[in-house]
TrEMBL record:
The keyword Transmembrane helix applies. It is found in: Secreted. This is Peptidase M10A and M12B, matrixin and adamalysin. One of its GO terms (molecular function) is calcium ion binding. It comes from the Bacteria.
């Protein structure tokens, strides 16, 4: 490939310090401190940058719809170079928790080869590579999208999922799953499609209008407020003639207020029903 070892000093451009290991370059003589005992199976992120600097960017590699997956608890280090298509990082075979962050460009998947502890940053994604989709495994996973339209699927476990920009489809799967939103609740509108599916619209605030579809999500975490999806479905019951509302109106900065609203609604309904029954009895008697 025409690459030097990072410790070589012949032309004065050596790599020193924490980047002189397999996590950053396959040309190093030092194992990764985060993933000891694992040798990279691809050129690493600094190698990709150097190769592109020397020879230009290859825009034809993996230009189709690709799925990147690994066996359960597999030991690996890898950098993805992908130039197009609708691509997926899949941890569906994993039994332990994983972290996959498309925005930051890294993932923790599998185990390291020496201590058999969970791997750390063993998958790298260069900044000019776009991955669209993530599938989690059976553990309590953390899945974070990027600024395009993503599809995030938690699968099993109690997962944390964040679209992080774009119009995202977020499916928690099994378990007690949480969707993360970066802004305050007053900047969102919502629509309860059914008891299992919710549309969250980032209608106000610093970002452009974005719409996320949530399915199999139990909890919603906003910038300064957390609530359950059951609260939204209860609000739909209370506002039977208005299925769309503001999350801030729902909360009224007090997550318990919605239950009082429901009680007030039921009391009013029962009182009216009793009045109608009394009138009906009077009519029938006379």
């Amino acid at each position: 490939m025409g690459l030097e070892h990072p410790h070589e000093t012949s032309d004065g451009d050596q790599i020193v310090g924490f980047k002189d290991n397999y996590e950053y370059t396959i040309m190093s003589y030092n194992e990764s401190k985060l993933n000891p005992g694992v040798f990279p199976r691809t050129p690493q992120i600094l190698d990709v940058a150097a190769i592109q600097y020397l020879y230009g960017v290859n825009n034809n590699t993996r230009s189709g719809d690709d799925i990147y997956s690994w066996e359960d608890n597999e030991n690996f280090m890898q950098t993805i170079w992908d130039t197009g298509g609708n691509d997926t990082i899949s941890a569906a075979k994993q039994s332990n928790e994983v972290t996959i962050d498309l925005a930051a460009g890294y993932a923790n998947i599998g185990l390291n080869n020496k201590t058999y502890k969970p791997a750390r940053s063993n998958l790298q994604i260069p900044v000019n590579v776009i991955i669209e989709n993530i599938k989690g495994g059976q553990g309590d996973d953390t899945l974070i999208g990027n600024n395009i339209d993503n599809r995030l699927e938690g699968n099993g476990g109690n997962d944390t999922l964040e679209g992080n920009g774009g119009n995202d489809f977020i499916d928690g799967g099994e378990g007690e799953d949480t969707a993360i939103f970066s802004d305050a609740p007053q900047n969102y509108d919502y629509e309860v499609i059914d008891n299992n599916q919710i549309k969250i619209i980032h209608a106000r605030g610093s970002e452009s209008v974005q719409t996320d579809i949530l399915i199999n999500i139990e909890n919603l975490n906003f910038l300064d407020t957390n609530l359950t999806v059951h609260t939204l479905t209860a609000q739909k019951f209370y506002q039977a003639t208005n299925q769309q509302g503001k999350v801030a109106d729902l909360l009224k900065h007090n997550s318990g207020s919605i239950f009082q609203q429901i009680i007030d609604f039921l009391v009013t309904y029962l009182v009216r029903l009793m009045v109608h029954l009394a009138v009906l009895i009077v009519v029938l008697v006379h």
